[in-house]
Design a protein that fits this description.
binds 5-phosphoarabinonic acid, 439 residues, alpha/beta, five-stranded mixed sheet, five-stranded parallel sheet, 46% helix
Length: 439
Amino acid sequence: MESLKILYDDALVPKDQILKIAEEIKPEIERVREALSKGYEDDRASVNLLDDEEMLNTVKRTIEEKLRLEPKCLIVIGIGGSNLGTIAVQEAILGKLYNLSSPPMNVLYADTVDPNLIYSIMKIVEPVLRRDDNVLLNVVSKSGITTETVANFRILLDMLRKYKKDYKDYIVATCDRDSKLWNLAVKKGFAALEIPRKVGGRYSVFSPVGLFPLGLLGIHIRDLLNGARQMRNACVDMDLERNPAAIIASIQFAHYKNGKNISDFFFFSSDLESLGKWCRQLIAESLGKEFNRNGERVNVGITPTISIGSTDLHSVAQLYLGGPYDKLTTFVSIKDSRPPLHVPGMDEYSDLVQGIDGKSLKEILNAILEGTKEAFRKDKRPFIEISLPDKSEGSIGQFMQLKMIETMYLGHLLNVNPFDQPDVEKYKRETRRILAGEE
Ligand code: PA5
């Protein structure tokens, strides 16, 4: 499998400084290596999902079983780490406009409790059920008690029950074993897929959280895991120059220390926008912390932002090239973009924009990317480049695994725990209190 390429000549951090910082990461690289032999016992357990054949076989069996129902629509009910990875991979591989291309199975995501969103989903799905076609609900929640997920599940379950006597066959619950949701699924006879205990939401895309819905949609989940495995092996290399996660984490940390605490992901592919949203959660939730590992108040964090090329050049380029020097940019592009669409030669239109006659859209997009990089270079705005060979499962798997291990290394450099989210619990607790009518 062709590896993604990382270029950091324009990162504006001298190589000896990068390697010096990377030296500090070595104990954490050791810990990730050790985690490889600890199954699901360590916080870094997500790195072992890639080799879990038993889990993969269970997921595949459930997919086969549910495909026999010939579902016309899948609704993934989950939020945050329980759906962002799925959306990211689905849109990257199948395209953002997938549902409009008359696929055998549509996919819809019920995340927030916005009544307009859920009503729209019901308006799309009810006619399918009325035709006596089948609809699957995949309710995904690690804790099993997230307010939004449970509320949406109950509404959609209620709809399903009106049309299907055997409604339990159309529900798959993905959650922690022995959570309340798990126990309910067992009691009601829904299929249940387990999220290994130490695998947290934002590190769970390679668990049944992502694998079940993605495999159901026909995405090659084994290739996704193979890509991730190839990257994981590179990211535990003790030879730091060959370790992409250590290199990028060191560059990011050097800039953070210099006051650049914004990390912009500039994807030159519309289909990768949701991959950006997945990255945003991973970095924000893992690294934004009130206390460090010694219990001292530090209030640290890196603010991730997402931009899409070339669309957002018409929105944010002024700020990025004229505003404060507070960002490190990562340009992400795809080497092999298909299909090869060309601008047709038409004499009478040639004057509108010169130099595009006969060129492919990919060539034009590349020219815009090169132009943007050159402008950044001239302005001494630091950037890293990640070039994906293509938009295949293997490439996306590599990218996601890179970001997850890089985040673990950044957590080490910032001396924070990248696996918890104590402050997210603050609003969840308050919401539960308000809804329960407590003072
Ligand atoms: O990454 C995380 O831990 C969070 O974003 C959770 O995934 C999110 O809050 C949803 O939680 P749960 O999966 O328990 O429903």
